[in-house]
Amino acid sequence: MIPSDREWHPARAASATALADLQSVAPARLPAAYLELLAFSNGGEGPLPVEPFNLCLYSAEEVIEIERERSYQEFFPGLFVIGGNGGGEAIALDVRGAEPWPVVYFDTTNIDLQESVQPLAPDFDSFIGMIGLAGDE
Length: 137
Hints:
With 137 residues, the protein is of the alpha+beta class. It has helices spanning 16-25, 32-40, 60-69, 113-116, 124-128, and strands at residues 9-10, 44-47, 54-57, 79-84, 89-94, 103-107, 118-121.
């Protein structure tokens, strides 16, 4: 999933039950590459070559809890949070439009979506190609 020459600190693999539960709470069909990543590493951490420069991937169970509690839905509707950068920015699938959904990041303290939400990758497959590559911070 993530090439072995990349910097990635994986967690154990997600169970089939956790992946099915995750899909059941998702607002839409999740990208296959995202589910494959969780099946390989149910959470983990590594660099990104562009802002926000770090990915703390949430486990399937953490994402399920976020969705069930509707943690971000009041101020960040249509953003399916899958992780963060460890410093106050969330990383999400932007499911407000048509597939494939872009991967975005946003400042969790700024509820102005026009200011806060920034593009990260045009789709999850492109995002996978960025994981584990360091950038020029």
